[in-house]
């Protein structure tokens, strides 16, 4: 019998991370993919993924607009509540056999709660990692609600077993984002794409990439944090691709900081972008001289690609990392110095902490074979 | 500065369990109690607690009707989502310093998510225990979202530290339900009460108490499970106080089973009840000959009171228990036999696994002194 | 191009009323039926329609559980709000060309608001009538949100034109419930049905039918109102089919009144029922000696079938009626007398105030041809 | 007994319109004001009113964040649904005697539905007017749900009586916005204000004001509509205060049009603003040479102030207007010509179609004396 696998994508970043698995699930003869797009993944200002999905040939089962419009944590909580309501209704109607919750964004709690309350087998991808921010709490809470765990590292696997998860249901598949990174590495020619083409760096061009998100437990410092990095990059005076932040509380504050900067400085070399396709995005990272900010991309994909990273602040605190990462504070001077050091070092050798590029296949295969809740009643 | 302590009560059972702490919080000069009543705690059919609160002299900050009307897990998920939305709005307006989430009912996830998303210090009472059912997942997920833990047993404390919780924020306060049990034990005279009076057993009367809830992961067996126990109690032919079930999915199925039974059998000795006051409830338990079913009352309060318990099925699987508990299956014959054995054994000696009756005071004192999130920023 | 016609059914009564139109829409080559079942139409205690739909061969596009569980007007308001949210999401995903809102129950506001906010052509069936209760407000508000009106009487048509509705979009189709009544009249043999069979009256049996709902603007009198009628019917001492009430605020109060009655009186001739199939229901009415209560069935279908009706209270105040209706108060004595008078009068001659039995066809034909909002932009 | 009067403000424009009444309600000894701020009135990008409320000395009873973040009509419907849920909970807890719904924005439906479902006396301010857009439907639907009507013009009063509203409950109070306009007229000195000061025009400066909102039934033309007006104003080449649009679907599209314009044109004389205080706003209008766009301010306040207005498109179609208004299309050339004609004409004489400046007092007095639903039960 074909298993219906429902994946809820709530952000562009999650799409990039899971895409390799989606491809394999779609191709698998025993699986049917139910793709749900929700929250910021539907909003233009956060890099709506609908065009990318269409281009990549994915059909959408449902769209759920559940983001509240307000830059505060209250809105984040309500977005989560609304998502829970709507996903419960949707699951009732599309009857998935398995629901997949990705990573640690607060909206993924909606997916996890709806599925677990409804006794639908819940798979959590990327559990067991350690970081700062509300992400940490969310990730661990989703782990507790989940029935099966597809983790990205050996340490994460150990951690889940240590806290009492049944080892039979904890699988180290690696992170599917590394599958894409492998692809990006092997393509010598730059992928042309309608949406990204005009943002493409010239061949051989030297440039930086910045990805800096708000830290929801430090919202009062958001504006200061973004200013320090903006000033550092201005001083570095190297062409830079700067990604708009994810849809977290604090994100509009970052956008305001950027607008303010743009109004004051007209002679900078920064290009603010948001809509890169997953593969082009990784090619952009792969060909960059240094990645700056607090995104997990610096920790995961960049370690595989060997890209020098300057990681700022507490957002990734505790996450396993390769030798390519230098940590620093939200401090203009320190950032400049760290980047300069990384530029001198140049490329690092590839590390496979987060996988070797075959996560998608493993995930699809497991989804077709793991025992569902219905099949393992005695465990409960 | 006075700290505002917000407690959300979603079921009569939770009120019984936390009442001793509420009393101490109310009396504490450094604390202000914000009492929110929600979900089944507002519904007459599940034993609405508004009258009890008034009688006990508590003021209510807000009432939130968020129970969906449908006997399925989909409704349970939506109830949780709606609760999250409404509690977020409420917290935004009443600005608590601390939010307390009690136990492991699915609706407590709403409280936990709203508070944690909003960076409000979240205290979880009764974490770290092990059981079956969805309760297990909910309890552990709330633990992961919480900042401070007031556990009821030494083992629970160890377990939370083992899975990585900071020991400085894990306190073994004991369970405040034992405070009430202590009180019930010391009162020789039966408490008269307007609402319970007419249900009072006669002095010296020998009777059983039954509390059997649905198991949300075994919903398809609910009707069978209730039938077995009903038949067993009929065969035992002893006066019995039988409590209507909590507001879980499956609960209407139990109620239907009871109605069916009542239509068929007119010569039984069962009294179906729901609205006992917390203290009268514990007196009823204390004077009973045996407690039957799958309620945690059999595990917690009954072990302190030394009452023989026949615990049925998986719902309490794994929970620490005293020597007063005999486990059995949903099987009429086995239940009859187990009860008869317990009746022969009579009263057990008191055990203090779940506390010694001073939890309320400890909890209030801790609430006045624990560092709030705002004060321990560096942890994050 | 095939037009997608979405109908949201929120109560068993609405299903009976619209079924004839559903049949015609389904058969029409230019129309595709999108059937949504929501609110009380999904709940067993109010006569869940899922089995009936299956038996009648209808496919369901989506189920939406949106009833709040609380017997008060607050819950009714929240049910409406939740319905609006969920229907908006659903319409976004199933993209209907036309949405149909039926009658005047408060939940129909959800349908009307979602469709009108989203610029989807909204058809209101049964507007322009006058009654008491919140129904009156709801009906007129939906009329104001609707683009096209299928009314049941000539007076209703005039009224809508008088208050400014464009006559081109106000159609007197008659009420589709009369189509079923016509069918019920023409069938001499009683329809057997699995679900109703055992409730079937014997051939030639003389019996009454009672349908009494709560009046949401007179909730404080609900219990008294039901008591008066129960006593009257007890005094009449004739076999009686008594239908459980609709899912309005006050409905549980009525159910309680009935339970109380049943506990006290064991020698009555009343049969309490809820799950009649639409056609059997009308056959039951058609063969009854008198219909008692405050249901619009007494006003609409009964006038066509010529059945004597004793209409109680303000709920139908102002609604056009035939000579078969006698009005009275919630007063035991007056009800008994009115019923006795009606029993002496016996059958009335058929009146076609609410249509002549061909509404379904007219409605389907109009749905295929009326200009959609998109086609008549200039009106706005 | 003091009556609790609850007013829900969902947009800055509504605050400007109702402020004079708020002042009088607050001062009235028999009334207690319950002020609820919701939806776009809480969002910085739409001109958050919290600072203004504080400055004006109003206490807030509750804040409700219910705006969905998505630029489409689906989000508008969901915002309305969420508002209904949250307002119902709030009304349950703060127990207002009267709820006031202002005007015709879609979110006001939430207020109206919650209050009417809950049998709370609902007063509608500004009913009975005629316009284009979804506003028309919303206004009339709220009228149908309301119990008492405070209209702004004699024609509106007649219209409500004609469609069947009880004349005893339809009062022509005039529009409270005219009270403020009267005040603005009488103040010779320009009000200084912290928030507006730096935007203040110089004394004697000649300037235009533009207020152009999206038309929710013509969303596909929004970008074109804004472009035409931007080009017209650029050609006119006169200093201009241009207000950001209300929070309607289509509003982000307008904002984008403005950003696009700003990127291309650096030599224009437009100042884009959003946060004017109610009184300063009216002074700005009063001293302007011409008001351009599709705001009702051009129809209401401007007619009293005698300001020349160029009204564009269908948004105000059908609304009663003074001789100061010239209508035109979204056509750059026609707009330029209409504005030039109005500039030649200069100031018009004051008209009192929408009141004479004493609405606030009348409204407060009526609120203290009108019979509540509870007092006029017999009407139902």
TrEMBL record, chains A, B, C, D:
Enzyme Commission number: 3.2.1.183
Source superkingdom: Bacteria
Ranges for domain UDP-N-acetylglucosamine 2-epimerase: 24-367
EC primary class: hydrolase
Gene Ontology MF term list: hydrolase activity, hydrolyzing O-glycosyl compounds
InterPro entries (UniProt xref): UDP-GlcNAc_Epase, UDP_GlcNAc_Epimerase_2_dom, WecB-like
SUPFAM superfamilies per record: UDP-Glycosyltransferase/glycogen phosphorylase
Record has Hydrolase as a keyword: yes
Keywords: Glycosidase, Hydrolase
Keyword Disulfide bond assigned: no
Any single biological process term in GO: UDP-N-acetylglucosamine metabolic process
PANTHER family reported in the protein's UniProt record: UDP-N-ACETYLGLUCOSAMINE 2-EPIMERASE
Name of this protein: UDP-N-acetylglucosamine 2-epimerase (Hydrolyzing)
Species the sequence originates in: Dyadobacter sediminis
Gene symbol of the encoding locus: neuC
């Amino acid at each position: 019998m074909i298993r219906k696998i429902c994946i809820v994508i709530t952000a562009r970043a999650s799409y990039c991370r899971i895409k390799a698995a989606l491809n394999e699930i779609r191709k698998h003869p025993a699986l049917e993919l139910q793709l749900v797009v929700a929250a910021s993944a539907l909003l233009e200002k956060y890099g709506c993924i609908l065009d990318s999905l269409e281009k990549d040939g994915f059909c959408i089962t449902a769209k759920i607009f559940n983001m509240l419009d307000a830059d505060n944590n209250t809105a984040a909580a309500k977005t989560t509540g609304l998502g829970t309501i709507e996903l419960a209704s949707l699951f009732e109607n599309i009857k998935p056999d398995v629901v997949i919750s990705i990573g640690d964004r607060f909206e993924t709690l909606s997916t996890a709660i709806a599925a677990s309350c409804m006794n639908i087998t819940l798979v959590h991808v990327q559990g067991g990692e350690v970081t700062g921010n509300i992400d940490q709490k969310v990730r661990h809470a989703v782990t507790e609600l989940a029935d099966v765990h597809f983790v990205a590292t050996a340490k994460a696997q150990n951690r889940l077993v240590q806290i009492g998860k049944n080892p039979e249901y904890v699988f180290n598949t690696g992170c599917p984002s590394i599958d894409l990174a492998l692809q990006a590495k092997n393509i010598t020619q730059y992928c042309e794409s309608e949406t990204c083409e005009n943002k493409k760096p010239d061949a051989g061009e030297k440039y930086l990439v910045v990805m800096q998100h708000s830290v929801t437990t430090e919202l009062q410092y958001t504006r200061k944090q973004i200013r320090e990095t903006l000033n550092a990059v201005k001083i570095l005076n190297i062409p830079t691709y700067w990604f708009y932040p994810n849809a977290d509380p604090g994100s509009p504050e970052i956008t305001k900081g950027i607008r303010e900067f743009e109004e004051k400085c007209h002679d900078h070399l920064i290009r603010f972008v948001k809509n890169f396709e997953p593969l082009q995005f990784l090619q952009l990272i792969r060909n960059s001289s240094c990645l700056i900010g607090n995104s997990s991309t610096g920790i995961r994909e960049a370690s595989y690609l060997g890209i020098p990273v300057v990681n700022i602040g507490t957002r990734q605190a505790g996450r396993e990392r390769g030798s390519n990462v230098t940590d620093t504070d939200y401090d203009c001077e320190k950032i400049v110095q760290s980047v300069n050091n990384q530029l001198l070092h140049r490329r690092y050798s590839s590390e496979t902490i987060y996988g070797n590029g075959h996560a998608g296949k493993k995930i699809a295969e497991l989804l077709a074979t793991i025992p569902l809740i219905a099949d393992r009643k005695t465990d409960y």
